[in-house]
Amino acid sequence: MSTVTSETASHELQVAAEQHDHSPGRPAPDPAHRRPAVTLGAAGDLLRALAAPVRIAIVLELRAADRCVHELVDSLGVAQPLISQHLRVLKSAGVVYGERHGREVVYRLVDEHLSHIVVDAVAHVEEGDR
Q1: Known InterPro entries for this protein (predicted)?
Q2: What is the residue-level pLDDT of the chain in tens, covering all 130 positions?
């Protein structure tokens, strides 16, 4: 019976981890391509802002055309205060911005990158339903 020291066991685990390939055929990750924690945190905040079904629906609507609140209320069948609350979240996250036109504020997406995230997520779910 052999005695294994904690140092030997630790070394063996490290060697096994280095030899284990989770992604055969893919290059090993390059540490130079790691993102700063602040960037990853901001991306997480953005994804959390997009994480509500009503906000996803709003982004899809705004992808089609700029809309004012009452148009979003009509098309989504959601109460005006709830639409306004979700628009505030999206606005504070930098997903949408509003431009006043007389008595109304017309909302639009800040850029198309954000709508692609939502469209891809919805498409992914729909593909799984098939």
Answers
A1: ArsR-like_HTH, HTH_ArsR_DNA-bd_dom, Metal_resp_trans_reg, WH-like_DNA-bd_sf, WH_DNA-bd_sf
A2: 555 555 665 555 555 555 555 667 777 777 767 889 999 999 999 999 999 999 999 999 999 999 999 999 999 999 999 999 999 999 999 999 999 999 999 999 999 888 899 999 999 999 987 6
54, 89 contact by CB (below 8 A): no
Pinpoint the alpha helices (H) of the chain.
6-19, 37-49, 53-64, 69-76, 80-92, 112-128
Neighbours of 104 (CB within 10 A): 14
User: By the 8 A CB rule, do 87 and 121 touch?
Assistant: no
CATH (residue range 53-128):
1.10.10.10
90 touches 96 (CB < 8 A)? yes
**Is-contact 88 119, C-beta < 8 A?**
no
Beta bridge partners of 105: 100
Burial string for 69-82 (b: 16+ CB within 10 Å, else e) reads bebbbeebebeeee
